[in-house]
Design brief:
CATH architecture of the largest domain: 3-Layer(aba) Sandwich
Structural class: alpha/beta
Radius of gyration: 18 Å
Distance between the termini: 21 Å
Number of domains: 2
Shape: globular
CATH class of the largest domain: Alpha Beta
CATH superfamily of the largest domain: HAD superfamily/HAD-like
Largest sheet: 6 strands, parallel
């Protein structure tokens, strides 16, 4: 393996975003006049379904007979409103990168590694995060981006990682994926990638069998030896 690219998940991997997503969902539900309110325990279960619109559909499938249900078009509209609300929450400074993320990305860029994202979240959410955390457009931080609104099948399906690899023009053996969740791990492994897992607030109780490494965060002291050799040869 000749390490040439790093491919990152976004939510939970770059930053602990899931609480903001949950807040944005609940505020949007209230705005729509729905009596839905997702607790942390609810959301931990719902995160096993990749994609916000898919999460809404999975939730309402569990509602009792006679409860209000949204049509497919209504789900899309509600999710669009939620995305706008999430972006506003981030813009007001309610987000910071997880430990080590900024340092790793800077060192990777200096070493000439390619940087990519493979995320089930939508492109507007990606833009909101990079604007808040780097003060830059997403493409200025991650030249290759595969986002959830570009694929038919969300994680744990490997489609999003296959798309990122296609855009990188590299085989999976020359790349390393970074994830925080089991569904993300399975998605990356399904594309043939070695995976570094840094469990997040909502995935710390999961098993991550098959990961090349499972570490608390991306602080330099936790970097896998391959990264140390590739990025810190000076």
């Amino acid at each position: 393996m000749t390490l040439q690219a790093l491919i990152f998940d976004v939510d939970g991997t770059l930053a602990e975003t899931e609480e903001l997503h949950r807040q944005a969902f609940n505020e949007t539900f209230a705005e729509w006049g729905l009596d839905w309110s997702w607790s942390r325990d609810d959301y931990r279960v719902l995160l096993k379904t990749g994609g916000g619109k898919e999460r809404i559909a999975a939730f309402q499938a569990t509602l009792p007979e006679g409860a209000r249900r949204l049509s497919g078009d209504e789900i899309k509209a509600l999710h669009k409103d939620k995305t706008t609300r999430y972006g506003a929450l981030i813009a007001h400074g309610h987000l910071e990168l997880r430990p080590g993320v900024a340092d790793l990305i800077e060192k990777a860029r200096e070493a000439g590694l390619k940087l990519a994202l493979a995320t089930t979240t939508s492109r507007p959410n990606v833009e909101a995060l990079t604007r808040a955390c780097w003060g830059k457009a997403a493409a200025d931080v991650f030249p290759v981006i595969a986002s959830g609104d570009e694929v038919a099948h969300k994680k744990p399906d490997p489609e999003i990682y296959n798309l990122a690899l296609k855009r990188l023009g590299l085989p999976p053996k020359d790349c390393m994926a970074f994830e925080d969740s089991r569904i993300g791990l399975h998605s990356a492994m399904g594309a043939g990638l070695p995976v570094v897992v840094t469990p997040s607030l909502y995935t710390d109780e999961e098993e991550h069998m098959g990961a090349a490494h499972r570490i608390p965060d991306l602080s330099r002291q936790n970097w896998p030896l391959m990264l140390v050799a590739r990025l810190c040869s000076d």
